[in-house]
Input
Amino acid sequence: LDPRIAPDNSYMLATLSFENNANIYRATRTGSIIGKVTEGLGLNLSPSISPDGKKLAFVSDRGGSPQIYVQS
Output
């Protein structure tokens, strides 16, 4: 869902669903998964990367309702 390309074009972030949880994963530009970026129950969607590539904002319902979260 709605992948985002890193500012330096080296990777992308995309929401993928495995085991009934939607999390954000880091992947190569060709789609090979590098690793999971978010953890937790609930849905983690709509990644957005800061222009310097140091922060990630995303929507999650882990707190009971959809809210915006930011992490390094």
